[in-house]
């Protein structure tokens, strides 16, 4: 089995917005994130994404809009020489109490089942407390990046052990160990 990483999207790969990323034009990668995904994927890692997208339930964007955003993400990574193996998303409202919305581990467990992954101890990189809790619930290694909401999350979890400046710092560290 190839090594793998699972990433959150908003605030980790691309700039986040309190009003949601609603179109490909609003999707802007964080500096170094595309390079990070490319480094990981060209060095033998499968890269997966698991992202909450409540903007769909709130009527801010459609499934087609989300697909176009993810197409832009995939094309941007591909143009840099990298590859994203799969993207899972939760379209539900936070009050729906679904199993896929982080902090529940549903999306991570779905990736594990569909791709025969052993999640135990494998990195899930996020910028929010929901990401860290989903990683813990799925027995992944929770990794915090300080982009997006990462600074605020670190204030809530100052004892969190695995923290990186950004996704590129995580990728370089992962490849050097």
3D structure, described in words:
With 177 residues, the chain is an alpha/beta fold. The protein is 36% helix and 15% strand. It has 6 helices and 6 strands; from the N terminus they run E-H-E-H-E-H-E-H-E-H-E-H. Strands 3-2-1-4-5-6 form a 6-stranded parallel sheet. Helix 1 (33-42) runs parallel beside helix 6. It is globular, with a radius of gyration of 15 Å. The two termini are 18 Å apart.
Short structural description:
This protein is of the alpha/beta class and 177 residues long.
Tell me the strand percentage band: 15-25%
Overall form: globular
Rg from alpha-carbon coordinates:
15 Å
Number of strands: 6
Largest sheet: 6 strands, parallel
How do the strands of the widest beta sheet line up side by side?
A: 3-2-1-4-5-6
Quickly give the structural class: alpha/beta
Please give the count of helices: 6
Percent helix: 25-40%
Termini gap: 18 Å
């Amino acid at each position: 089995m190839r090594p793998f990483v699972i990433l959150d999207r908003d605030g980790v790969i691309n700039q986040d917005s309190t009003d949601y990323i609603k179109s490909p034009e609003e999707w802007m990668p964080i500096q170094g994130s595309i390079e990070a995904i490319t480094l990981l994927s060209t060095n033998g890692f499968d890269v997966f994404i698991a992202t909450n997208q409540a903007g769909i339930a709130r009527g801010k964007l459609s499934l087609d809009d989300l697909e176009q955003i993810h197409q832009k993400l995939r094309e941007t990574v591909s143009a840099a020489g990298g590859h994203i193996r799969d993207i899972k998303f939760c379209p539900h409202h936070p009050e729906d109490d679904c199993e896929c919305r982080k902090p529940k581990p549903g999306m991570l467990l779905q990736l594990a089942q569909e791709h025969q992954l052993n999640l135990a101890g494998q990195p899930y990189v996020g910028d929010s407390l929901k990401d860290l809790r989903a990683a813990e619930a799925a027995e992944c290694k929770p990794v915090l990046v300080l982009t997006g909401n990462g600074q605020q999350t670190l204030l809530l979890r100052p004892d969190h052990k695995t923290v990186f400046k950004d996704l590129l710092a995580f990728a370089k560290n992962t490849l050097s160990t």
